[in-house]
Amino acid sequence: MPTKNLVTLLIGIVFISSAIAADTVITLSGIFLRKEPVEKVIWYGGLLSKMIFFYDQACTSGESEGCFNLATIYDTGDASVQNKAKAIEYFTKACALDYALACNSLGILYANGVELDYASAVNYFDKSCQLKEEIGCKNKVTALDLQIKNKR
Fold this sequence. Notes:
single chain; mainly alpha; Serine Threonine Protein Phosphatase 5, Tetratricopeptide repeat; two-stranded antiparallel ribbon; 7 helices; globular
């Protein structure tokens, strides 16, 4: 039995290490997987207003990652900055610029009930999957299952 626990621990360490190496952290949002920027840790260290300013400038300049990071702040930030409408707006901009994680995050927002719409969620997860984001592919399957269950 201790061997099974050790193997599970090692798999977890490899999984987390690979996420950090890619400058993202994998988290759960309800039953869906999400990747978030590692930078999120410093957003709460007094730099939040500067991060919003610079990510907004980057997004305005057409940088998809700036739009994604700004949307993530509005989606998962503390109560002083949370704004789901702005999160959807900036995730939509980043997704339109073919940023796969933004499409995945949009799918999560639609599937988790901000604007409960499984068809839209499946479309965004599908686009994320087509952009080669494995988490988007996994979330698409989950959303399709939920869509089928809710039609019954």
